[in-house]
Specification:
The structure holds two protein chains of two kinds.
Chain A (H helix, E strand, L loop, with lengths): L1 H10 L1 H37 L7 E5 L14 E2 L2 H6 L4 E7 L1 E3 L1 E3 L13 E5 L9 E2 L13 E5 H6 L7 E6 L2 E13 L9 E5 L1 H7 L5 E2 L1 E6 L5 H11 L4 E5 H48 L1 H9 L4 H40 L13 H27 L19 H26 L1 H30 L2 H19 L1 H39 L4 E5 L8 H8 L4 E16 L5 E9 L4 H4 L15 E4 H7 L6 E5 L5 E10 L7 E4 H7 L7 E6 L5 H11 L6 E5 H44 L1 H9 L4 H37 L12 H27 L3 H6 L2
Parallel strand pairs in A: 6-11, 8-10, 17-21, 18-20
Antiparallel strand pairs in A: 1-13, 1-14, 2-12, 3-13, 4-6, 5-9, 7-10, 8-11, 9-10, 15-22, 15-23, 16-17, 16-19, 16-22, 18-21, 19-20
Chain B lengths: L14 E10 L6 E11 L4 E5 L6 H8 L7 E6 L2 E2 L5 H11 E4 L11 H5 L1 H6 L5 H11 L14 H14 L4 E5 L7 H18 L2 E5 L3 H4 L4 E6 L2 E7 L3 H12 L1
Parallel strand pairs in B: 3-8, 3-9, 6-7, 7-8
Antiparallel strand pairs in B: 1-2, 1-4, 4-5, 9-10
Helix pairs in contact in B: 5-6, 6-7
């Protein structure tokens, strides 16, 4: 039977190539995801793994256990240094400060993309603990104010040379520095797209607004002393609010954090790979079903001469396994290339990652092969069992190319049940059980609709193909009828496309709803004319700049909003959560923001003011006393003093004055500004802009610009999603090509007849092309409907979380349908060509 | 009437082949299906092409119909030399001047009988002469079957639809390849009667390939092929005469 399977495969090279391609692409995506994340993980491991090489113990401000969620690097008074240096066994103790700094180009614009971190560090003199070094010929370390050393990767990227003057932006302003050195990592690792700027210690403190403050003390033990022993001695004298760790512990925690981050990234990529594979499975199943149908007589002949039905199943399954093995192997290779290409492509747009060889794990290869083979064989099994039930007499019957019609009633029952289950899973997932159930629900919904699709394929073909006969005459009529003659085939082909289109439509509906909801809440609740934020959202808006603004007479109110992370617990300890908390100035906030506070926003002086729905959700009431624990470890008890209608900034407000006691260095995330009566908005904006010339990180926007920027960011996210979903759509389009190619083989006599009685090649191509378009549009319409329903459901579930507006981006969805139609045209190019070039007499004589 | 509505002289042959050579394959395995064949098919006549399997009779029909090309020699349809035509022009010529009836698979399964009959006109996007259509349908007795799909018709009815389709565009010539090959004798007689009627009443030129002497007997002329050559022609053949001739060949 193996030989029969191999022969049969070889006899149908083209259709196998097309089937295999869908497996190749799916496997490539899986393998590419793993190779890519493994490779960048490896690069970062090298980068951070040696980062604490010379460090025995490091002292830092104590983060609470929710530290990762707090944005600011806490600092502490440098006086601690003397205390630590005096501990017996401390060899070297060096202070260090770190913060944000980004290079500017000659026009004053920020260099490099937002995202990868841009560090400022104080230069550590002691070579034993310094992980950076300045090599011979690369200058010297910064020793004076006005001097900077730049990491060598960044210097090469932007052509920065020794002696050059560069402008650098900090949260609190900007400065001009002379480049005196180019710093290299002691382990020669590449920094990728992040940058490191090094300043003399006092200068760094001044630039980062950390006078007399430091962010870390780096310690090396005297020779032969166990770091663990030194750690214990240091901990014994350590003041409240500080913590000490060994270099090993720090390295461990950094690597763990990295692993979590990359794991999340990998999971996200694998979800998209899963979608691609699901679509591939549809196509494999459809292909094998058509192949089996076309070979019915051949299979029946085998049965007639004595093959058992088990042998038939084995033959089809063997054929599938062979396809699976070969295409998975190709897929693994393609996946490695994909990972390489992905790294290079991201590098080109500025996201360069640390250099290093691609990491291709055994686990990656095994997984890729297993996924590919299992999916292919599993998809082919159903058609294989169908094939095994062929009665031997079918070999003798004429016109045995057509499969039996499955009971429509059964299909309707099964399809509705699966769809129903999917809907239940979706609802249950959205309401209680979380994202996994939403995923399972969506998957069942897709399957259910795919099972039901053949029931509507005929009317859909009539409806969607309705204009074709009028537009294109007979080729149009035949195209329409061809979509209707095998509803299962049409539906299966369309369903594969449906999945991808449903997901992009879902993303479109959800993102549009998010944008509109944000826009509405901005318009409704914010009276501010201008918003001031930082361009990168890592730093805040400089407090000095806010002070500059308060003197401007064109402005009626300047009200900063600060955001911090806090742990809130009820008095009895029954509830505890880490959440964000916002600080406002009660004197000015009402002029820029309709908070809807009851009894009034002044309540923040007494305690915290909480948004009504949030209050209800948590079961708190006005007057309840809650415990607030801050990242520094300090905790206070604070009553709920009032309620809030607006849910902006997380819905929990305290006063700026109280906030600054626990987050003294947290600058405003946002400053809301209202313009004085009678002052032209443009003029006011220009005025504020001119004041901002010393603060390159500050960005001033009108309310509509702010909303547009938000929409733009959402748009970028949508573009990334769509890019990742594109593969699933490409596979589905290959599926259309495949189905058409198979159908044409099947209809070759018919095409021969049409050619004989006078159909020109163009008309043949047109017939095939429009069939493809109808199938693609059918899939797209199903997808848009399904995606719309999904988007509607998810939006509804998130209504209380601020998604108050449902927005259906009709034009966008119509464009998707139109694009699907165009994709159909493209999918039809090759099949149409081969259909128009059939050899007439051979076609007519075809059995 | 001295010219047909296509402009060629009426007395010129509808279709002709001159020194036609057709070779299948290459080198050692090459088969000469037609060896210097020449014949003229007169207008308004019913010609039967006969011969054993592999004699080249189907190849001759296909080249006369513009479905296949020659290696040497020339085919004229209605005075037009085919060797000069590109695929598109050849297709248009077939559409306009040639009607076909094949042994099996004459109909498009997704189209009903009426749509199948009108196929050549629909492909050309030409208007239907309703009187002509009605006359053909009436003659062939298809009036109550027009909205049936091919799968709902009997074999004889399917072939009658095919004949109707071949006649609808008033072709110069109708080429029929074993049109009764899959029919029982009653349906076969009926179909040949219709074809005969078309020749007699409207002067339709018909060329038909068959191996059956009783079928060939319906023709005005029988042409015998062997090994790619015409070896004999017989006017007003009857079954017995054909049978005797074939028998004499075997001896």
């Amino acid at each position: 039977m193996l030989r029969t399977a191999v022969r049969s495969m070889w006899a149908h090279k083209l259709r196998l190539t097309l089937t295999a391609l869908s497996v190749v692409l799916g496997v490539a995506f899986v393998v590419g995801s793993f190779v890519f994340t493994d490779t960048i993980g490896d690069g970062f491991n090298k980068l951070f793994g040696d980062a604490y090489a010379g460090v025995d113990v490091q002292v830092e401000a104590a983060f609470s256990d929710f530290a990762q969620e707090a944005e600011t690097v806490p600092s502490f008074n440098e006086g601690v240094l003397d205390q630590i240096a005096a501990v017996p066994g401390v060899g070297v103790a060096v202070p260090s400060v770190s913060g944000f700094a980004q290079l500017l180009d000659s026009e004053g614009r920020l260099l490099g993309i937002t995202g990868p971190p841009k560090f400022a560090y104080s230069w550590v003199e002691d070579p034993l603990v310094n992980r950076l070094t300045i090599l011979e010929g690369d200058g010297r370390p910064p020793t004076e104010p006005g001097e900077v050393a730049v990491d060598i990767t960044t210097a090469e990227t932007y052509d920065i040379t020794l002696g050059q003057e560069v402008d650098v932006a900090f949260e609190n302003g900007k400065g001009r520095f002379r480049v005196v050195g180019l710093a290299t990592s002691v382990t020669q690792t590449d920094f990728g797209a992040s940058s490191i700027l090094l300043f003399e210690h006092r200068e760094a403190q001044r630039l980062l607004g950390l006078e007399n403050e430091i962010t870390a003390i780096v310690i090396q033990a005297e020779d032969g002393l166990d770091p663990q022993v030194l750690l214990e001695r240091i901990e014994a004298v350590l003041p409240e609010g500080l913590t000490a760790s060994t270099g090993e512990q720090l390295e461990q925690s950094v690597l763990e954090e990295l692993e979590t981050g990359l794991g999340f990234f990998n999971t996200a990529l694998l979800v998209f790979a899963g979608v691609a594979i699901l679509v591939g499975a549809f196509i494999i199943q459809n292909t094998f079903r058509i192949i089996v149908a076309q070979r019915l007589r051949e299979l029946a002949l085998l049965r007639a001469i004595g093959a058992t039905s088990r042998q038939i199943v084995r033959m089809v399954a063997t054929e599938a396994a062979l396809v699976g093995v070969v295409s998975s192997a190709v897929g693994v290779g393609a996946g490695i290339l994909l990972a390489y290409g992905m790294r290079e492509a991201l590098g080109l747009v500025g996201f360069s990652f640390p250099r290093g060889d691609l990491v291709v794990g055994t686990r990656t290869i095994v997984l890729g092969m297993v996924v590919g083979v299992v999916i292919t064989v599993a998809s082919a099994l159903l058609p294989a069992f169908k094939a095994s039930s062929v009665p031997p007499v079918a070999a003798l019957r004429a016109g045995a190319g057509h499969t039996r019609r499955a009971s429509l009633r059964n299909r309707a029952i099964i399809g509705s049940s699966v769809t129903g289950l999917g809907a239940v899973g979706l609802v249950v997932g959205l309401a209680w059980l979380g994202i996994t159930w939403v995923g399972i629900g969506a998957l069942l919904l897709f399957l259910g609709v795919a099972i039901l699709a053949p029931l509507v394929a005929r009317p859909a073909g009539s409806f969607l193909g309705w204009p074709l006969p009028r537009l294109f005459g007979l080729p149009g009529l035949l195209a329409k009828e061809n979509t209707r003659r095998q509803p299962r085939r049409t539906a299966a082909t369309a369903s594969a496309l449906m999945i991808g289109i449903a997901l992009v439509s879902f993303v479109a509906v959800l993102s549009s709803s998010i944008s509109k909801s944000v826009e509405q809440s901005l318009l409704e609740t914010f009276a501010a004319d201008l918003t001031i934020t930082s361009v990168n959202f890592t730093t805040g808006v400089s407090d000095e700049f806010v002070e500059d603004l308060s003197g401007v007479d064109d402005l009626a109110a300047v009200s900063p909003v600060r955001i911090g992370t806090v742990r809130i617990a009820t008095a009895d300890g029954s509830q505890e959560e880490v959440t964000s908390i916002a600080a406002i100035d009660p004197a000015t906030v009402e002029q820029v923001w309709a908070t809807g506070a009851e009894p009034g926003i002044e309540a923040v002086v007494e305690g915290m003011v909480v948004e009504t729905n949030l209050l209800e959700d948590r079961g708190w009431a006005v007057g309840d006393v809650l415990t607030l624990e801050f990242p520094t470890g300090e905790a206070i008890e604070l009553p709920v003093a009032g309620t809030l209608a607006s849910e902006a900034f997380g819905g929990i407000l305290i006063s700026e004055e109280r906030f600054l006691r626990y987050y003294p260095l947290t600058s405003p995330a946002l400053v809301l500004v209202s313009v004085a009566d009678g002052v032209d908005l443009d003029r006011a904006q220009q005025r504020v802009q001119s004041l901002a010339s010393d603060y390159p990180l500050v960005q001033i926007q009108t309310k509509s610009e702010f909303a547009a920027q938000f929409e733009n960011q959402i748009g970028q996210l949508v573009a990334v999603f769509n890019g990742l979903l594109a593969l699933a759509i490409v596979i589905a389009i290959l599926g259309i090509t495949n189905t058409l190619a198979l159908s044409i083989t099947e209809r070759i006599r018919e095409i021969g007849l049409l050619r004989a009685v006078g159909m020109v090649r163009r008309q043949v191509r047109r017939m095939v092309r429009w069939e493809a378009v109808v199938v693609a549009v059918f899939g797209a319409v199903l997808g848009v409907l399904l995606g719309g329903v999904l988007g509607w459901a998810v939006r509804l579930a998130l209504e209380d979380d601020g998604l108050e507006v449902f927005s259906l981006p009709a034009l966008q969805l119509l464009i998707y349908v139109a694009l699907a139609g165009i994709a159909g045209v493209i999918a039809a190019i090759l099949p149409a060509r081969s259909a128009s070039r059939i050899k007439l007499l051979q076609a007519l004589a075809h059995e | 009437m001295s010219t047909s509505h296509h402009g060629a002289a009426v007395d010129a042959p509808a279709v002709s082949i001159l020194n036609g050579v057709k070779i299948y394959g290459e080198g050692e395995t090459a088969v000469r299906a037609l060896r210097e064949v020449s014949i003229e098919i007169a207008r308004g006549r019913f010609t039967a092409i006969m011969g054993p399997s592999g004699s080249g009779k189907s190849t001759l029909l296909h080249t006369l119909a513009g479905l296949d090309t020659l290696e040497e020699g020339e085919v004229h349809i209605d005075g037009i030399p085919l060797s000069t035509l590109k695929d598109r022009d050849l297709t248009l010529l077939r559409r306009e001047k040639v009607g076909f009836v094949f042994q099996t698979f004459n109909l498009i399964p997704t189209l009903n009988a009426e749509e199948n009959i009108l196929l050549p006109l629909s492909i050309a996007r030409e208007n239907v002469e309703r009187d002509w259509f009605d006359q053909i349908v009436r003659t062939l007795g298809l009036g109550d079957r027009l909205h049936h799909l091919p799968s709902q018709l009997s074999g004889g009815q399917q072939q009658r639809v095919a004949v109707a389709r071949a006649l609808i565009s008033r072709p110069i010539i109708v080429c029929a390849d074993e049109p009764t090959g899959n029919l029982d004798s009653r349906a076969s007689d009926e179909l040949l009667g219709f074809i005969r009627e078309a020749v007699d009443k409207i002067g339709q030129t018909v060329v038909m390939v068959t191996h059956d002497p009783t079928v060939a007997a319906y023709a005005d002329q029988a042409v015998f092929l062997e090994d790619g050559k015409i070896i004999h022609q017989m006017n007003d053949p009857n079954a017995e005469a054909i049978f005797d001739y074939l028998k004499s060949l075997g001896e």
